[in-house]
Amino acid sequence: MNCPNTDYSTGNIAYQRRSVLRVAGFNSCRYGHGREDTDLAWRIKKNGVILFCHDMVISHFDDTWSLKRLITNASRYSYDVRFLKDHGTFLYYRKGFMHPYLYACLVFPPLIFFGFPVWRPRDLLFLPQVFIYLVNVRWVLWRAALREGVCLV
């Protein structure tokens, strides 16, 4: 089955060697530590088809995130802006808003409960850190937009 447009960033993807060589592989100089996998997939897809295999499975392990890890992770969002500039589109871009749901959570914090599950009472203690993370994500996106010459809200 032909794979729909996605961000291809889950790590459960495989390519034929010739497809990767045809597009000169990962663009790790332009995408340091984020979106290099998405960029590769989109460049391959421009030259052919990416097939989806339901049998391919990947597991992600739950991990405890500290505020420091959240801040570090937020820095990766700058590559989303670069991807938008390079490809003219991005899965999480709508009418000038990059990651509109994260923006909405920043403007109206109660929305955080819908995207960041609270399973135990102690999870409530983490919500202020999530808000700091969202502020940092927006800051990273705006700085990247200025640097890349992309207009974002």
Describe this protein's structure.
This protein starts with 16 loop residues before the first helix and ends in a 5-residue tail after the last helix. The longest helix is centred in the C-terminal third of the chain and has 22 residues, at 127-148. Strands 1-2 form a two-stranded antiparallel sheet. It has seven helices and two strands. The protein is globular, with a radius of gyration of 17 Å. With 153 residues, it is mainly alpha-helical. It has helices spanning 17-22, 36-46, 67-74, 78-87, 100-107, 112-115, 127-148; strands at residues 93-94, 97-98. It folds into two domains: 1-60, no CATH class; 67-148, no CATH class.
Question: Structural class from helices and strands?
Answer: mainly alpha
Overall number of domains? 2
The side-by-side strand order for the widest beta sheet comes to 1-2
For the record, give the distance between the C-alpha atoms at the N and C termini, rounded to a whole number. Answer: 36 Å
Give the overall average pLDDT: 87
Strand content: under 5%
Q: Main sheet?
A: 2 strands, antiparallel
State the helix count: 7
Give the topology string: H per helix, E per strand: HHHHEEHHH
Low-confidence stretches: none
Rg on CA atoms, Å: 17 Å
- Overall geometry comes to globular
Based on DSSP secondary structure assignment, what is the total number of beta strands?
2
Query: Helical residue percent?
Result: 40-55%
